[in-house]
Amino acid sequence: MKTLKTRYKVIYQIVYTLLGWAVRLLYPLRVLGRENLIKGSGFVLASNHLRAIDPLYILLARGFGKRMLIIAKDELFHINGFINWCWKVFGAFPIDRGTGDRGMLDQAMAEVRDHGTGFLIFPEGTRSKDGNLGKMKSGAFVVAMEAGVPIVPCVIRYSAGKAKLFRRIGVAFGKPVSMEELGLTGEYSVKKIREAKRIYTETMQRLIEETKDRL
Asked: Residue 80 and residue 140: Cα distance in Å, rounded?
């Protein structure tokens, strides 16, 4: 699985540093709760989703560190060679939801579980059209449960409604939510996942409300 190998590590560090400087000059970034990010062990970072560019700002808000994994739609890897390369450098890997092939996802979960890698995912599954939090899908919770790692809530907000030059972009990280808190210990069941989605939706709504005047 080439997208998950370490051959991009040095390139990632260089590109992350240069791109971080450029982006922060053009798009002021305000970050809250960075101390809530887990270090030294795997976690799922589950965020609301407003714009296609969200992953970039979330990675920059997290701060320099180990390259994370990011789920991306398979079609995003067929735009052109350069875009495909950029996705790989930043840890993205394609998922073709129409095939039901879990191979890539299983390897990603192994990275999270066995190598302390962070996994960025958007549990709504698609971008919000009205800015409000949408219905949660099961993916983030299945990943966290099978990898046995906590979920870190994340909220991104654009002061101009979108990425606009010299307009602030805010990112807030909430306290990690354990598998016990989500009721995802023991054997998998649809009922457990349904309840976990309800609990996590309430957690995200609280984080949105608590940070709306600060981001």
From this structure: 28
Sheet containing 69-73, strands listed edge to edge, beginning at the edge strand earlier in sequence: 29-32, 169-173, 151-158, 43-47, 118-121, 69-73, 92-95
Whether the per-residue pLDDT at 63 is higher than 90: the answer is: no
pLDDT, position 110: 86
Question: What are the pLDDT digits (tens) for 81-109?
Answer: 776 777 777 788 777 655 545 677 788 88
pTM: 0.87
pLDDT grade for 39, boundaries at 50, 70 and 90: confident
Residue 153 phi, psi (nearest 5): -65, 145
Amino acid 3: pLDDT: 46
Q: Which of 96, 46, 50, 51 is nearest to 73 (CA)?
A: 96
Contact call for residues 86 and 19 (beta carbons, < 8 A) = no
Rounded CA gap, 77 and 84, in Å? 5
- Burial code of 114-129, b = ≥16 C-beta within 10 A, e = fewer? eeebbbbbbbbbeeee
Q: Which residue type, as a one-letter code, is found at position 7?
A: R
